[in-house]
């Protein structure tokens, strides 16, 4: 297990430098006028130019620029936005509500996906399974830009079941609808993977053994099949975090939740390059760390990986 | 002879799939006595594994359906027991070991957990006691360093050791009947012999009835008391092991024996059985073996041969028993 | 027993995997629903005038949020534009971007996957690590950064920028699938046989390995079409996608958002069309995958 963790940590370090480098390159490599790339097509003052120079060392070579940027990132110095606000402070204010939203949507997604996935995996081809499959297909077909505004319109405004917007101090109830929207981005795939995985595992030889041991169906499924079936679902969660981050940008924008995604949303609209690069970099770090944790959980669940 | 422990009568199993109905078992009769080893022999697809799983009650339904017959265990028809009663028979009375122990053991739990589970579920044993019993079981099947190895996962054992774990698991609750479905097929030849010896030893100690399912005539000769030869979902011949080797009574058995390479026949062409076993969705009329049989005549195409009692313990379903026996 | 059936079935006339897949596809309801939807959207993208005679850019503030009339069956939005016309014309750039971006991703994915799978060794290690790095960045985050930079030219309508963004970032799954398909078929006996008969690497790769590895790749590309349509809409919604005089479902949804309380139509209709298009490609991908997977047959 120890060697596995070390190897995985090393891998993460490599991916971290690679990913930040790619993002940085996407933003700055081969740009005629890096200042304009950062601020878009708005006019730029000399003071802003100087600030951007200080932050991004735009007069240095590309690799030096990257080095300065990485150093800032690692020391927690994220610089300032175009309008002169500290990106670190913005982030600090935005985190709490986003974390609440993300946790809520992950819990909703996991409970629904695993619960319904196991049920339809057991009775493949049954009525419940058919209905679930059609529903997941519909949800899969709805990009977040469709799902979030429509949910707000129908469930929030027309039916009035949920508050249509949530503020900074939004409680669980206010966050329920956005969390539902965000969660449904990943429910469909998680559910389908659970279903397939349960159906496959039910046919596995070890299930026959478990039944030959005289175990009740509840125990065969709950103890033997479930743990095996969850392994591919767990690995999926790592990818899903990325989907949730992307989804949060639109969801928080639509529901007016002043979280990380909302700030990023506004930063994109305002063509605030430093803010976008700063936020995206931090999100990538979070993404990598969560993926590391997911891999460790995966290893804990599947002994075959641990002892490889 | 004593009353049989297990008495299977006229068992029928079919698989209903979209492609049609496959009659995997078409009226199997088998008896197993305490302390006896019965080998069930046949090519793959002849219904021997399905018969075993029907006795255990672990067939996947659907697609498999038991459509007729009885499985009497000490006089009680298991097929008529309610499921929760039948569950208590499994592992407690009748246990089973499978061919490929790697896939038959759950990969994500330690072997200790999977052994202890039996005591926890069936006997309500405490966690600590169940763990101790698990270690004893591994000791019983001669796994070295059992105390440490209970904490290992199936993939950490060698093939032979894994099959020992399977045996330990099957024998945990002292069953009277053990069904072994090709227990050594997936193993190296040297390991095969060790496993068979272990099985024989444990059977003797416990006076268990052992039903050994195999397609390997070599394995059979060593350990079996009686043999039931299956073809296309039926038992076509049943006899004490010595008799069947000396004088097979069914054309199929005879052909099977002749297809074994023999040292004293070196240089001669090997007799192989022509063709393939029939598809279970389309079993030939009359005697199912007739399209491949050297003795086949018109009657074989028309009439299903009855089971002839040719000696006190010998049954063969062949129209030409006399010709095959050479009398 | 099934071997015999297999033999007799194939003995008559040899059929290719694609031919078998097509025979199988023809019997699937899902495939036909998806195919009809895709064809409708394609026709809409190529000849929008077949569906509406109105001009989506012909907007009159006097008709602001007006209800349906005559040809404008979906009513008018807050700028007085014909919602139906805008929705119909929205298909064009959406399909254009998605198809071109998918082609770009397809070519990159094909080359990277083939090279990594066929040559193996350090090249495979390098390319695989690079794919890992790319997968370490959530797709939309990378797309936002790149699209924002590419679309900084105020004159452009963003079609090229979004196409390049989606195409350059979206090839990783395709490459992975191609790589593992090549790895599998590389070790097949028929490839070894061709090699022994003296086939060079180029011929081996394109005549023997590629045709047998292509089906999972095609499935990924079909699904990618749907993802790219959603991606274009999302980027446009966020303001880093199509812009200027471009007509896009994503822009329409973004613009309608603040006015949903007074007029829901301008939000609902582009949403429905967008979802239906994505749905069509997902279903097509599902159907093609099932048809190409001989194990399921």
From TrEMBL, chain A:
Family listed: Belongs to the binding-protein-dependent transport system permease family.
Transmembrane regions listed in the UniProt entry: 12-31, 99-119, 131-155, 175-193, 229-255, 275-301
SUPFAM superfamilies: MetI-like (SSF161098)
Keywords: Cell membrane, Membrane, Transmembrane, Transmembrane helix, Transport
Pfam families: BPD_transp_1 (PF00528), BPD_transp_1_N (PF19300)
Annotated protein name in UniProt: ABC transporter permease
Membrane topology classification: Multi-pass membrane protein
Localization per record: Cell membrane
Domain ABC transmembrane type-1: 95-298
InterPro entries: BPD_transp_1_N (IPR045621), MetI-like (IPR000515), MetI-like_sf (IPR035906)
TrEMBL record, chain B:
Molecular function as annotated in GO: ATP binding
Membrane topology value: Peripheral membrane protein
Residues forming coiled coils: none
Pfam families per record: ABC_tran, oligo_HPY
SMART domains referenced in this protein's UniProt entry, alphabetically: AAA
PANTHER family: DIPEPTIDE TRANSPORT ATP-BINDING PROTEIN DPPD, OLIGOPEPTIDE TRANSPORT ATP-BINDING PROTEIN APPD
Protein name: ABC transporter ATP-binding protein
UniProtKB/TrEMBL annotation, chain C:
CDD domains: TM_PBP2
Transmembrane regions listed in the UniProt entry: 30-51, 95-120, 126-147, 159-178, 218-240, 267-288
Compartments in which it is found: Cell membrane
Keywords: Cell membrane, Membrane, Transmembrane, Transmembrane helix, Transport
Record's bilayer topology term: Multi-pass membrane protein
InterPro entries: BP-dependent_transpt_permease, MetI-like, MetI-like_sf
Major localisation: membrane
Limits of the ABC transmembrane type-1 domain: 91-285
Any one Pfam family match given in the protein's UniProt record, by short name: BPD_transp_1
SUPFAM superfamilies tied to this protein: MetI-like
PANTHER family, per database record: ABC TRANSPORTER PERMEASE PROTEIN, OLIGOPEPTIDE TRANSPORT SYSTEM PERMEASE PROTEIN APPC
Family: Belongs to the binding-protein-dependent transport system permease family.
Record-given protein name: ABC transporter permease
């Amino acid at each position: 297990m120890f060697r596995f963790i070390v190897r995985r940590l090393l891998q993460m370090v490599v991916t971290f430098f690679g990913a930040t480098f790619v993002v940085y390159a996407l933003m700055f490599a081969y740009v005629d006028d890096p200042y304009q790339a950062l601020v878009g097509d708005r006019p730029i003052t000399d003071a802003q130019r100087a600030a951007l120079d200080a932050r991004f060392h735009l007069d240095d070579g590309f690799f030096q620029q990257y080095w300065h940027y990485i150093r800032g990132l690692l020391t927690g110095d994220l610089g300032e936005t175009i309008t002169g606000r500290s990106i670190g402070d913005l982030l600090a204010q935005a985190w709490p509500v986003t974390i609440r939203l993300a946790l809520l949507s992950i819990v909703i997604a996991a409970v629904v996906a695993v619960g319904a996935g196991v049920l339809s995996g057991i009775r493949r081809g049954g009525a419940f399974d058919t209905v679930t499959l059609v529903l997941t297909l519909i949800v899969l077909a709805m990009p977040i830009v469709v799902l979030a505004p429509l949910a707000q319109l129908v469930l929030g405004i027309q039916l009035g079941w949920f508050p249509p917007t949530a503020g900074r101090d939004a409680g669980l109830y206010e966050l329920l609808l956005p969390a539902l929207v965000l969660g449904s981005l990943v429910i469909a795939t998680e559910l389908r993977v659970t279903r397939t995985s349960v159906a496959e595992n039910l046919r596995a030889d070890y299930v026959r053994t478990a039944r030959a041991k005289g175990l009740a169906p509840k125990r065969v499924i709950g103890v033997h099949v479930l743990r095996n079936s969850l392994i591919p679902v767990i690995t999926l969660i790592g990818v899903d975090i990325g989907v949730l981050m992307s989804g949060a940008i639109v969801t928080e924008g639509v529901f007016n939740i002043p979280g990380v995604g909302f700030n990023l949303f506004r930063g994109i609209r305002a063509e605030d390059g430093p803010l976008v690069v700063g936020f995206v970099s931090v999100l990538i770090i979070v993404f990598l760390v969560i993926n590391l944790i997911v891999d460790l959980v995966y290893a804990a669940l599947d002994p075959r990986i641990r002892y490889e | 002879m004593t009353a049989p422990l297990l008495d299977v009568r006229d068992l029928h199993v079919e698989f209903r799939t979209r492609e049609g109905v496959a009659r995997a078992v078409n009226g199997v009769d088998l008896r197993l006595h305490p302390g006896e080893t019965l080998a069930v022999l046949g090519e793959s697809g002849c219904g021997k594994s399905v018969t075993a799983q029907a006795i255990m009650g672990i067939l996947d339904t659907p697609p498999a359906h038991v459509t007729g017959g009885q499985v009497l265990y000490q006089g009680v028809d298991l097929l008529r027991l309610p499921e929760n009663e039948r569950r208590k028979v499994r592992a407690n009375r009748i246990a089973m070991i499978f061919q490929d122990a790697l896939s038959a053991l759950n990969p994500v739990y330690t072997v200790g957990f999977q052994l202890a589970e039996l005591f926890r579920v069936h006997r309500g044993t405490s966690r600590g006691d169940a763990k101790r019993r698990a270690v004893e079981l591994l000791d019983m099947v001669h796994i070295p360093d059992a105390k440490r190895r209970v904490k290992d996962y199936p993939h950490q054992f060698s093939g032979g050791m894994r099959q020992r774990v399977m045996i330990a698991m099957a024998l945990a609750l002292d069953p009277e009947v053990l069904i072994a479905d090709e227990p050594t097929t997936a193993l190296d030849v040297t390991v095969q012999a060790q496993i068979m010896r272990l099985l024989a030893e444990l059977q003797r100690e416990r006076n268990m009835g052992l039903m050994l399912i195999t397609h390997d005539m070599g394995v059979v000769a060593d350990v079996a008391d009686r043999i039931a030869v299956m073809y296309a979902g039926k038992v076509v011949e049943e006899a004490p092991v010595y008799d069947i080797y000396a004088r097979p009574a069914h054309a199929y058995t005879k052909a099977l024996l002749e297809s074994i390479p023999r040292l004293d026949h070196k240089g001669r062409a090997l007799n192989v059985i022509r063709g393939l076993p029939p598809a279970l969705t389309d079993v030939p009329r009359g005697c199912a073996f007739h399209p491949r049989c050297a003795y086949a005549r018109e009657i074989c195409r028309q009439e299903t041969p009855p089971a002839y009692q040719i000696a006190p313990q010998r049954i063969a379903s062949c129209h030409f028993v006399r010709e095959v026996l050479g009398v | 027993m099934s071997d015999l059936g297999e033999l007799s079935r194939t003995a008559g006339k040899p059929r290719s995997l694609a031919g078998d897949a097509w025979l199988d596809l023809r019997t699937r309801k899902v495939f036909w629903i998806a195919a009809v939807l895709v064809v409708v959207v394609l026709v809409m993208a190529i000849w929008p005038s077949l569906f509406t005679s109105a001009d989506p850019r012909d907007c009159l503030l006097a008709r602001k949020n007006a209800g349906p009339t005559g040809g404008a069956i979906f009513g008018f939005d807050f700028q007085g534009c014909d919602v139906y016309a805008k929705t119909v014309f929205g298909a064009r750039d959406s399909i254009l971007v998605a198809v071109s971006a998918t082609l770009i991703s397809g070519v990159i994915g094909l080359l990277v996957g083939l090279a990594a799978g066929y040559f193996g060794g350090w090249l495979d290690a390098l390319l695989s690590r690079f794919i890992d790095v790319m997968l370490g960045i959530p797709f939309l985050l990378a797309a936002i950064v790149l699209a924002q930079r590419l679309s900084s030219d105020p004159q452009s309508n963003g079609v090229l920028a979004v196409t390049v963004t989606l195409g350059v970032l979206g090839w990783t799954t395709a490459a992975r699938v191609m790589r593992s398909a090549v790895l599998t078929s590389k070790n097949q006996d028929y490839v070894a046989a061709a090699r022994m008969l003296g086939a060079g690497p180029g011929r081996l790769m394109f005549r023997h390995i590629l045709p047998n590895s292509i089906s999972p790749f095609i499935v990924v590309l079909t699904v990618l079409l749907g993802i790219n349509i959603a991606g274009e809409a999302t980027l446009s919604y966020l303001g880093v996608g199509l812009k200027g005089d471009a007509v896009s479902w994503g822009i329409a949804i973004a613009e309608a958002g603040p006015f949903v309380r007074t007029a829901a139509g301008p939000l609902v209709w582009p949403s429905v069309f967008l979802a239906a298009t994505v749905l069509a490609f997902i279903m097509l991908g599902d159907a093609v995958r099932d048809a190409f997977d001989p194990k399921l047959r």
